[in-house]
Design goal:
Blueprint lengths: L6 H6 L4 H16 L8 E5 L4 H16 L5 E9 L6 H13 L3 E7 L12 H18 L4 E3 L4 H15 L8 E4 L4 E4 L7 H10 L16 H15 L3 H7 L19
Parallel strand pairs: 1-2, 1-4, 2-3, 4-6
Antiparallel strand pairs: 5-6
Length: about 260
Amino acid sequence: MDERSSYREIISGTMPPWVMRFIKGAGKAINRYRMIQGGDDILIAASGGKDSLALALALSVRRKWLPVDYSLRALMINWIEHPIPEEYRERLAEYFDALDISFTIKDELQFPSSFKDDFNCYLCARNRRRILFSYAEETGTRLIAMGHHLDDLAETTMMNLCFRASFSTMLPVQEFFNGKMHIIRPLIETRESITKRLEECYDLPVIKPVCPYDQTNVRARLKPIIQSLSHIDKLTREHIYAAHDFSECLMEERFSTDGSV
């Protein structure tokens, strides 16, 4: 028997202080970089994992607290080679409906013929991003929200530093196509331990995406190293974040204070 609490409690406004801090923390990052403003239309990249479901929850609940409104939609890519079980399709649809977020599942090939039998993390990520951008363009969406968190940023920094001789990482706000689209990462200041706790305490319909390299890729091998560093200094992840200069990630004002264009 599932003894976890219902996510509907959070939606109704009943939540423990740590969940409220999580949502407000996402809001703090959003405000710091002006990621979302009144009237915006945001497409959530919903993988079905704990991070994207936590992101959707935070953006939906936060919207109820604000004097301005923004619209939310979510797209989940269903890899034809590893299809989502029907049970989870229904549970995910119910979850996003409860959050008042329009939800679409798009069936796509994880191994398209253009890969020519080659497959790696880079090609998979590029394929997913291509699908997201195409869908965003079709629906006239400028903002794509991804569930990357503080741990992802720290791991990416270490990957680039140690294996590419570059001190760089994923950005809180990333511009594409000369500003036509932006990827935003509202959980960029949130530790992965918080999204794990949400998954453990609430009945989020988490379905782990199939990845043949999930436990063997470089990112997975860096996780315990960063965890070890955090035993020396518990703010290791935050220090890595603070070492970057994200001053150019501040998005332009899209609306005046009264909400007009």
